[in-house]
Every structure is written in C-alpha cells, then in structure tokens.
Known about the structure:
Layout: E1 10-14, H1 19-30, E2 34-39, E3 52-55, E4 70-73, H2 80-85, H3 87-104, E5 109-115, H4 137-152, E6 156-161, E7 163-165, H5 173-182, E8 187-190, E9 194-195, E10 197-199, H6 200-211, E11 217-221, E12 227-228, H7 229-240, E13 246-249, E14 259-260, H8 265-271, H9 280-286
Parallel strand pairs: 1-2, 1-4, 2-3, 4-5, 5-6, 6-11, 7-10, 8-13, 9-14
Antiparallel strand pairs: 9-12
Amino acid sequence: xxxxxxxxxxxxxxxxxxxxxxxxxxxxxxxxxxxxxxxxxxxxxxxxxxxxxxxxxxxxxxxxxxxxxxxxxxxxxxxxxxxxxxxxxxxxxxxxxxxxxxxxxxxxxxxxxxxxxxxxxxxxxxxxxxxxxxxxxxxxxxxxxxxxxxxxxxxxxxxxxxxxxxxxxxxxxxxxxxxxxxxxxxxxxxxxxxxxxxxxxxxxxxxxxxxxxxxxxxxxxxxxxxxxxxxxxxxxxxxxxxxxxxxxxxxxxxxxxxxxxxxxxxxxxxxxxxxxxxxxxxxxxxxx
Length: 288
C-alpha cells in the first residue's frame, strides 16, 4: 500500500460485521486507527476497546455522531439472487440506506463499495470507462449508489469489487465448494462462467489505499485474471485432497453475466497494488 499514514485516524465502517467489513476493521485496528462499526449484526473481536460498535441499520436512516477521517460504506444487500427475491429490502438498503449515509458526509472522505455487476454482460475485461448496463437488480442498485455519491459527496471514491474470497466467508461459491469437497460431496458447477476472483487481503489493501488517497471516482478492484468456475472447482478438489466429483449442470438463471473480468490497470498504477493472480491463496484457504 505504500506509505499510508493510518495511525490515529477515526474511521467509520458501515457493514463492519460482514465478511469484507471484518477484515477491513481488523486491518485498520492493526494500523493504529480508531474504528467505529455500524451494523445490524454484532462484531466479534477479542479487543473490546477498539472497535467501538453500534447497532444500526442504514436502511432505517440511522444518524451518525462524531467526526471521521474516512467513512467506508460497505453495508448492503450483496447477493444477486437474494436481491431479486427481496426487492423492497434491497432497494431500501442499497439505495435509500446509501443515500442516508451520503447525505451525512458531503465533504468527509468516503469510500463506497460497488460491484462488477454494474457493467453487465461483456465478453472482455472491462475498464472503468466501459459502459455500465447491469442485468440484475443488485447491479442496478449499486449503479444508482454510484450516481448518488457522485452527486452528494465531493470527496468520494467508488470501489467496483470483483468476486472476493478468503477466510471467514460463507455461503458463496468458494467456501461452499470447500465445504462440499471436505465432505466428499459433488461440486456442482452451474453453467459455463468466467469470473475474476480476488483475495480479501488485496481488497482490504485497495479500500484503505482509496480511503487515504485523493482519488475521485470509480476504480476496479480485482485480480484481473479470468477463472472458469470449472477450473476453480477442480483446484479445490485437488487442494483438499478430496475424492469429490465436479458435476456440470446448465445455468440456473440468466441474471448473472457469464463473463465478468476487470481491467485493474488503474488500481495498479494509482494504488501500487499487484494482487494475487494464481491459486496460492486458494490453496492456503483449502488447507485451513
């Protein structure tokens, strides 16, 4: 991340109890920041002095007190299929909730986690200049969040995240497959999809880098590598030493892009981050 001065900073993290949020909060604490977490779920950490935790729901319009060096707005409905089946909750959280947060920090440095889903279906790696045309509700709400922060907050950065994986995650494809492999159950691949998987530590590096930089606007945060789901499933079977089979089924829906890979040139040049682009971290994760 270079020479970023984080020690002594007051940082607010909405959604700080989630998968990405927990990793971000822990890193900020390790770097000497004073962290304030707002989430609907309790934050579990052996250090009770830091972070300071508040129960709050951004969708309900919670009010924030105090002055912050950086605000990281992570709180969101973050799953494509859940969003499609829970439209009101998704809009209330991702659109109205984001607006409540942005309205309270018009001049504070704020980082908003958006998604690769804003680009929609593409057949090539997309840069930040690529057209945005989401094909699902989740992507639509994230794109609207981007438009809101650009209008309401003068000092903002937008992190368009690819498919994040790492320790502490659950239910998403990689942790689900690792669980299946350890149980010698089949790993089911739905459709022929190619995604950009990025390790959680690289994402945290990027979020902190954006938070303590002067960069304005959207930035792709990914590995820049194209991974087919079948290849990832086969690697998980190999790394876990499982006798599971990889079973291919037709795609269950047309809500998610079949090819979703990010051009990360801007992340590399602006933040100096060169993410993991092989299976090293996946191997370690399978051995935990």
